[in-house]
Amino acid sequence: MAECKYFGTDGFRGEANKSLNFDHAIKIGRFLGWYYGKNMGKKARVLIGKDTRRSSYMFEYALCTGLMASGADAYIMHVTTTPSVAYITRIDEFDCGIMISASHNPFYDNGIKILNGKGEKMEDETLLKVEEYLDGKIDIPVAERESIGRTVDYVAGRNRYIGYLISMSKYSFKGIKVGLDCANGASWQIAKAVYDALGAKTYVINDSPDGYNINTDCGSTHIEHLQKFVVDNGLDIGFAFDGDADRCLCVDEKGNVVTGDHIIYMYGVYMKERGKLLNNKVVTTVMSNFGLYKALDKAGIDYDKTKVGDKYVYENMVQTGNRIGGEQSGHIIFSKYATTGDGILTSLKVMEVMLAKEKRL
């Protein structure tokens, strides 16, 4: 199969209105609305979420325009996280989902990530068809009369996702002082709500997005600020997310950084101790630290290595049944609960191990 021209491992990304522009978004919406309507024999239903970048609004409206012009209904979750779009796409049986985000990149970049009906990153076969339309190689009709689509406010989906995260915790966080760095991004309305509901004493930084400050000197790519915040405020633990909250890094009470490799090891051992580590194996990438492999060997845990990208980690998990895997950067996938990296879910799983073992991070 040919390689994708525009879509990489994490969607179609570029500087807004330069390498990725509103016309691309309209055409992507046009194709998906037509493609799923044609294949399903009914009006397509497509879910859309976005992060806090100024250009995300432009791309949201452009995608909606394209979808409606092709006869699809666009359900808008507004500002929300990538894993929330994946979860609601799957649970509410949408034909596909779209997340507008460039993850940890600066505000002037953006991206369009397409998910299939299972909440997984879209197959290359379909993405190649989208690219054919982008390049003008195929024509598709417009919807007319009663066939024209509409938009539907679907903020309720985000609220359902918050409820799902709360249900993931086996423990109350009452009395635990937790710091959250929301990177002025998609987690700013979600992470605190989850931790407050679970009883934590929640301290939040970088939760005032203005369209331009996403990832700017904050979040998981600038974790030094959370390190200082945790120590200065005497917190028990801190979690830093990126712009679309599909990754998480941790800070212990002394200000030490805990990376994705540490999390894979910690939770892998915890699963093994409880007889939950299927295949006795975790999934890593070629960028994982050699120390992780030495530690896994000592713990008697096997591992697979994939190319860099949580897309490849998840593909391995689907093929093998492995339950936990990820990247040093904090993209961690718990395949029993999610189809993509989920920063907030990852933080809850770290809390679970701490509370189960009654130990500091």
Overview of the structural elements:
By secondary structure, the chain is an alpha/beta fold. It has helices spanning 22-40, 54-69, 82-91, 124-134, 155-167, 191-197, 224-232, 260-273, 290-299, 310-320, 343-357; strands spanning 7-8, 11-15, 45-50, 73-79, 96-100, 109-115, 151-153, 177-181, 201-205, 237-241, 248-252, 257-258, 281-285, 302-306, 324-326, 332-334. The strands form four sheets. The protein has a seven-stranded mixed beta sheet, sandwiched between helices. The chain has a five-stranded mixed beta sheet with strand order 9-8-10-11-12, sandwiched between helices. Strands 13-14 form a two-stranded parallel sheet. Helix 3 (82-91) crosses helix 5 and helix 8 crosses helix 11 (343-357). The radius of gyration is 20 Å and the shape is globular. It starts with 6 loop residues before the first strand and ends with a helix.
Observed structural traits:
361 residues, alpha/beta, five-stranded mixed β-sheet, seven-stranded mixed β-sheet
Neighbour order of strands in the largest sheet: 1-2-6-5-3-4-7
Integer average pLDDT? 96
Specify Rg, calculated over alpha carbons.
Answer: 20 Å
Beta-strand residue fraction: 15-25%
Figure out the total of helices. 11
End-to-end Cα distance, whole Å, is 45 Å
Shape: globular
Main beta-sheet strand count, sense and barrel state: 7 strands, mixed
Please report the total strand number as a whole number. 16
List low-pLDDT spans: none
Q: What is the succession of H and E elements? A: EEHEHEHEEHEHEHEHEEEHEHEHEEH
Binned, the helix content reads: 25-40%
Structural class: alpha/beta
